[in-house]
Amino acid sequence: MTTVHFICRGNVLRSRLAEALLAAHMVPGVRVSSSGLDAVADLNGPISWQAERILSEHNLLRFASPHWQQTSQALLDSADVVVFMSRDTYEEARERLRLKAGHIIVWDVLDLWQRAGAKHPMKPNFLPAARSQQLSDDIFSEIRAKVDNLAEQLAQHQ
After folding, report:
1. Which of 38, 82, 130, 153 is buried deepest, with most CB atoms within 10 A?
2. Taking 80 as the threshold, does the pLDDT of residue 12 lie above it?
3. For 20-41, what is each residue's pLDDT tens digit?
4. What does the pLDDT look like over 94-123, one tens digit per residue?
């Protein structure tokens, strides 16, 4: 069994989308989970409205975890593959946690607030709904392409 774990900042958008997408591939022998470095701040509730909308539209809700999960050392230690959604999340995890030698992947999927041009994470609903929807759809498209590629690689190695 190979465990793939996705990590972003809050575990309410990017890592949850990636988790659901990879779980939907149903790659034999692959278990999927996700967490957020700052999920415990609970800024968006159990899941962002953007992620819930996207998962619902793509019939992926059943593949997503029902609630955010805080990144912990135990989660990292139990994963065979750890995928960081962005370089800044990876760098922060290196400072806060012990990353074991193994398969670490760092993607460059910017968060919603970064795509909006903000200098730091912001509270939910800081963007007009139409702009937020457009940016979150862009995030989903980018993640879907990366997850499809990862699923193919995992299937070849099972």
Report:
1. 82
2. yes
3. 999 999 999 999 999 999 998 8
4. 999 988 767 899 999 998 888 887 766 655
Mean pLDDT over the full length of the chain: 91
Please give the CATH architecture assigned to the domain spanning 2-149. 3-Layer(aba) Sandwich (3.40)
Q: Is the pLDDT of residue 61 over 90?
A: yes
Contact, 57 vs 47, CB < 8 A? no
The two three-digit tokens of residue 5, written as one number: 């774990």
Give the separation between CA 51 and CA 64, rounded to whole angstroms: 10
Tell me the CB-side half-sphere exposure of residue 82, using CA atoms within 13 A: 27
3-state secondary structure of 84: strand
Tokens of 12: 């309410």
Per-residue H/E/C for 104-124: EEECCCCCHHHHCCCCCCCCC
CA distance linking residue 55 with residue 143, whole number of Å = 13
CA distance 105 to 100: 13
Identify the burial level of 147 via C-beta atoms within 10 angstroms of its C-beta, where 0-12 means exposed, 13-18 middle and 19 or more buried. buried
Question: Torsions phi, psi of 26, nearest 5?
Answer: 50, 50
Question: Taking Cα atoms as reference points, which of 112, 109, 36, 113 lies closest to residue 67?
Answer: 36
